[in-house]
Fold this protein.
Amino acid sequence: MKRYFLWTVGCQMNAADSAKLAAGLAKLGYQPVEDPAEADVAVLNTCAVRQGAEDRAYGQLGRLRRIKQERGDGFRIALMGCMVGLRTTELEKRFPFVDVFARPQAFDDVIVALGEEPADLGGEFWPDAIGEARGPTAFVPVVHGCDKFCTYCIVPYRRGRERSRTIDDVEHEVRVLASRGVREVTLLGQTVEAYGHDLPERPDLGDLMAELSAIDGIERIRFLTSYPKDMTDRIIASVAALPKVCEYFSVPVQSGDDAVLTSMRRGYTVSEFRDRIARIRLEMPEAGITTDVIVGYPGETDAQFRNSLGLLEELRFDKVHVAMYSPRPGTIAWRTMEDDVPAEVKHARLQAVEALEQGIAASINDALVGRTLPVLVESVGDEGTRTGRTRSGKLVHFTSAAALGDTPEVRIEKASAWSLKGIVANPALLG
Ligand code: SF4
């Protein structure tokens, strides 16, 4: 039996890619191992969005190089994911012991380097290789790549242009996942509302979610990540109308200042963004909405930063993911802009966002105390402890006999900024 070691870092799309690769390798007779020293092939599925993620991959590469030197056999190393671009010359020089460099989702390159036949896996997106779910939830990529080219982002250069899977292909995968016990699927795309614009019938995300709603066993459908310009009224109305689709939106704003948004080439104004949030809340007053913000973008002034803080205060998101700008090689900002906001200013801005959001999130969550909400059990711990999520994406800890994938009603007793604590409403499920 051939063995593989697979290491993954980065976003949910990377996690889904690794699950797909693992399923493909399993079909070809490979077995996973935890220790790369026991593997025939080691695959590092990397991320280049932050320096920290790259540094972790470098650490793994050093470890694999030592294993290769010590073993001196046919041990093969594949470097895959967003660290690998169109031109690999520099990587080849720096890491000559790596056998194959594969861009994100270039699974076939890895398979060919192993001397295997990619055609055995059913063509583009490997429809016959469906990743094993870890528990009752699963990620399902539905649109690959990104056409937006925001100035700070490396993704379009690494993942290519937007390409949608057909509804039939996605439906097949979700049916298989449901038959394996999955109860909730999260549909993934870098800009998930771009789904379908490149398909002959031009379905939208709402059409896809309507089809998936008919699958027995699937109780919840989520989607990530939203792009404000692609988020049409029609898609928002579909989320509101389809009972299985959770009222949860992850919609990055990145800045609350029009000049910064223009410089970032985000393609919308603050007012257009505000309009999308208002539309969601009009249709779904209890929707969970999270956002992402970059602080210290080149040229960001104190006044521009205060505009971001003001917008966060006004729109009151359930969660804000805040990052300090850092130039990523190959991006437009890296080529054309000076990283001119001092590190200490970036830190202070990051802390200001975190402090503001902590108060907002705590007060939103406090308002849920006393409510009874359905919670899908995602993990089961010792002594009856359970963790799961509400439809709007809130993390809930409680004690119960409920099994993985069950959706008990939970009465919320305590709240903090980041999670809720509750008690199951049905005494029979107390455990
Ligand atoms: S929308 Fe912008 S930030 Fe998001 S993946 Fe595309 S280029 Fe990157």
